[in-house]
Design goal:
Layout lengths: L1 E4 L2 E6 L16 E5 L4 H9 L3 E2 L8 E3 L4 E4 L8 H9 L3 E4 L3 H10 L12 H12 L3 E8 L2 E10 L3 E9 L4 H15 L4 E5 L3 H5 L3 E3 L1 H11 L1
Parallel strand pairs: 2-3, 10-11
Antiparallel strand pairs: 1-2, 3-5, 4-5, 6-11, 6-12, 7-8, 8-9, 9-10
């Protein structure tokens, strides 16, 4: 089913686990509306370069922006100050020990230019289910026994789709991101999907690539 939207087709999803081709997305990257957040649909979306992003009172919106922000794990940037922090051992990293806590912190993290959160109750439930099935994973940063930062995303094997990160103390989310990239580089992951451009991600080595190139990387590595 489709509906005209400023001259471009807006696709409404039904019960079938199907998405339109990503090159049908509009200039902002919006591809489709509706459907659900079942694990099967979410995994199908990520494997095809699509992700959900919507406000609590909206229909589910599915996106595939062009260009796409990604990090090639071997290109992660470590500033001099971060290098010193890594050497000091001020933080401790764990993996999948506090997934729900990371999810909750990401939901309340204040972000410049955003009101409220896109990590709604339904989104939390969906990613908790993906976590139970072994697909959604978290990296946690601890200062002594306090959770001070972290990130989570969806692991597709050789591609990690980052979803959100948070910090309650300076540099904690950067620490999580760098340590994750170093781990995934050792495991020969092809890319970390960062979705859309931010100055913060660029400072860590992420870059924009054409969506077509991103889809090709997915097809070769998922």
């Amino acid at each position: 089913m489709e509906k005209e939207n400023k001259g471009l087709p807006l696709y409404f999803l039904d019960d079938r686990l199907e998405f339109p081709p990503v090159d049908m997305a509009n200039a902002d990257g919006l591809l489709a509306v509706g459907g659900d957040l079942s694990p099967e649909r979410l995994l199908s979306a990520y494997k095809n370069g699509i992700f959900p992003w919507f406000n609590d009172d909206d229909l589910i919106l599915w996106w595939s922006p062009d260009p796409r922000m990604v990090l090639f794990p071997d290109k992660v940037k470590i500033s001099k100050s971060m290098g010193k922090l890594l050497q000091r051992g001020e933080f401790r990293l764990t993996k999948n020990e506090a997934f729900e806590e990371v999810l909750n912190y990401c939901a309340i993290q204040k972000r410049k230019g955003q009101e409220g959160t896109w990590i709604t109750k339904n989104m939390k439930e969906a990613y908790l289910e993906l976590h139970k099935r072994g697909f959604a994973k978290s990296y946690e940063v601890w200062q002594e026994d306090q959770l001070v930062g972290g990130l989570y995303g969806v692991d597709l094997g050789k591609v990690f789709c980052g979803e959100s990160m948070f910090s309650t103390v300076s540099n904690a989310s950067k620490y999580a991101f760098i340590k994750m990239a170093e781990e995934l580089d050792k495991k020969e992951y092809a890319i970390i999907d960062c979705q859309v451009y931010t100055d913060h991600l660029k400072s860590l080595g992420a870059e924009e690539i054409p969506r077509e190139q991103f889809i090709q990387l997915l097809q070769r590595n998922v």
